[in-house]
Design goal:
The complex is a heterodimer of chains A (190) and B (312). Chain A has 190 residues and is mostly helical. Chain A has one domain. In chain A, the strands form two sheets. Chain A has a two-stranded antiparallel sheet with strand order 1-2. A two-stranded antiparallel sheet of chain A has the order 3-4. In chain A, a hairpin with a 5-residue loop joins strand 3 and strand 4. The radius of gyration of chain A is 21 Å and the shape is globular. Chain A starts with a helix and ends in a 24-residue tail after the last helix. Chain B is an alpha+beta fold. Chain B has two domains: 35 residues, no CATH class; 223 residues, Alpha-Beta Plaits, CATH 3.30.70.20. Chain B is 26% helix and 15% strand. Chain B contains nine helices and twelve strands. In chain B, the strands form five sheets. Chain B has a four-stranded mixed sheet. A two-stranded parallel ribbon of chain B has the order 1-8. In chain B, helix 1 packs across helix 2. Chain B starts with 20 loop residues before the first helix and ends with a strand. Classes of the chains: A mainly alpha (190), B alpha+beta (312). Chains A and B meet through strand 3 of A and helix 4, strand 10 and helix 9 of B.
């Protein structure tokens, strides 16, 4: 692992990080640049950012997997044909697996980000946007507080859970739980 | 003739702490006599104060403060940690509503035990404010065939669905109507509360509640000291005595401070929703306006503020 980190840092040191341009969509790239410009422009009034609007729990990364760029470099050979992936054998894809593959959501160029269908890059903390591309009504209900759990204050600050906090993105079905003990029957109470 | 099961009656044991009403009465008379002869003692004074304590609504602000301070002192001594007893008034412009998604509940009973810990329910003898009913999906909501004692390796069990039931916080509460001493009433924010010091333990309210939501303390409640929740409310989760009725208060000690009830926070599937029915932006209003909502035993005109719905 340490060697990998060293190699990655060496790589980044040797090759200056280029601005990410999704190769498959020039229009999307322009949109990204435009979006970047608007965020960089000095705002007169404080803008309610997406992060502040939906304060979410940390994404549920397995220990030591993030940042992904520690192992994945820019020199990765990008193979879009579904195939077993070394070091990620534990991931079982049960999420429309006949039609989808890792790089439909994970970005091949910037491994620390996800990308939407139009190529826009998003952080893992905004992954609900990605899920909402297919699960639109669920995202709508989640934003309104109907889908998913919120904690905090009913009349104030709330914390949302990300979709991925409950549904593993790779196999999103909710896993059965062991129930807490049944109540004591009335006749058994002494 | 078939032998009928006997009702579980409390064994006539001497109470460890505090006094029963009868004892307090006797002692009160003694204390009065003692006070008259200026030879009273502290324990008698406390019992006397309990016995002559006014109804919660009749307490003046100064008397209420005295009462709260007295309780805090007593509970702090009993449970070995600083206990806070508040009497937070209802917020203006708030009517609490609760929604529960039957299509998501998996029957794990985490809410039941979260509630027990938050609200200082007796561990032994066992008291649960929430009952989770298991029913057949094929049969729909059929309370006659509901089972609260299911015990599976994992839930949800195939072909079953789950319906947690607790106090429905009715707008037209039968339990309040039948109480002969007005020891239970509906607060302006919609929470039906009980003054445990005014309850005479007649259990009319238990018979009156169509939801089976009220619980009686047949024995002296037993709570381990280290598990006692020291943030308490006069009309909520402060320790109860033997012989009084208790029930869900939407976690009055939490919701009047703006927090979600405990069951909302411990639910692993996010099936439980809570908010202000008077706030058009609240999630509870969104659910009522957009989902298939129904209330339990609507035909009784109890007008619950607890809504069941199907989110999927």
């Amino acid at each position: 692992m340490a060697l990998g980190v060293f190699a990655a840092s060496l790589l980044t040191a040797c090759r200056p990080v280029e601005e990410h341009v999704p190769r498959w969509s020039k229009a999307a790239a322009a949109a990204v640049r435009q979006a970047d410009d608007t965020t960089k422009a000095p705002a007169k009034t404080p803008v309610k950012t997406a992060a502040a609007q939906f304060p979410v729990a940390p994404p549920p990364f397995s220990d030591g997997v993030f940042p992904c760029s520690e192992c994945h470099g820019k020199t990765d050979v990008v193979n879009r044909t579904p195939h077993p992936v070394e070091f990620h054998e534990d991931i079982v894809l049960r999420h429309d697996e006949k039609n989808r593959w890792c790089l439909d959501c994970h970005d091949a160029q910037n491994r620390d980000k996800l990308h939407l269908a139009d190529g826009r890059l998003i952080d893992f903390t905004e992954s609900y946007k990605l899920c909402g591309q297919c699960h639109g009504p669920t995202l709508r209900d989640w934003k309104a507080g109907e889908h998913g759990k919120r904690t905090g204050m009913w009349n104030g600050e709330k914390q949302y859970l990300l979709c991925a906090n409950c549904h593993s993105p790779h196999s999103p079905g909710f896993k059965p739980l062991k129930p807490q003990p049944a109540p004591v029957r009335q006749e058994a109470i002494k | 003739m078939r032998e009928l099961p006997t009702l579980p009656m409390p064994a006539p044991e001497p109470p460890a702490e505090g006094y029963t009403r009868r004892e307090a009465l006797v002692m009160g008379l003694f204390a009065l006599a003692a006070a008259a002869t200026t030879t009273g003692c502290a324990a008698d004074k406390l019992a006397l104060d309990d016995f002559v304590a006014k109804h919660f609504k009749d307490l003046s602000p100064a008397e209420l403060q005295d009462r709260l301070a007295q309780m805090e002192k007593r509970y702090t001594e009993s449970y070995g940690k600083p206990v806070k007893v508040s009497a937070t008034p209802a917020q203006e412009g708030v009517l609490f509503g609760y929604a529960l998604d039957l299509s998501r509940c998996i029957g794990c009973r985490k809410c039941v035990y979260g509630c027990v810990e938050e609200n200082n329910q007796s561990r032994d003898p066992q008291t649960h404010w929430i009952t989770v009913l298991e029913m057949d999906k094929e049969g729909g909501v059929n309370l006659q065939n509901a089972n609260a004692f299911y015990d599976h390796e994992t839930v949800p069990a195939p072909g079953k669905f789950y319906m947690p039931v607790a106090c429905q916080q009715c707008e037209n509460p039968p339990c309040v109507k039948v109480c002969p001493v007005e020891a239970t009433w509906r607060e302006p924010d919609g929470i039906v509360v009980i003054d445990y010091d005014w309850c005479i333990g007649c259990r009319n309210c238990i018979a009156g509640c169509p939801y089976g939501a009220r619980r009686f303390n047949w024995g002296t409640p037993g709570i381990p000291k280290d598990e006692f929740n020291p943030v308490t409310e006069y009309l909520g989760n402060r320790p109860r005595q033997r012989g009084v009725v208790e029930k869900c208060t939407f976690c009055i000690q939490r919701v009047r401070q703006g927090l979600y009830p405990k069951c909302v926070e411990v639910c692993p599937v996010g099936a439980r929703k809570f908010g202000n029915l008077l706030d058009p932006e609240s999630e509870i209003r969104y659910i009522i306006e957009n989902k298939r909502v129904y209330i339990l035993k609507e035909e009784l005109n109890t007008q619950p503020k607890f809504f069941y719905y199907y989110g999927l």
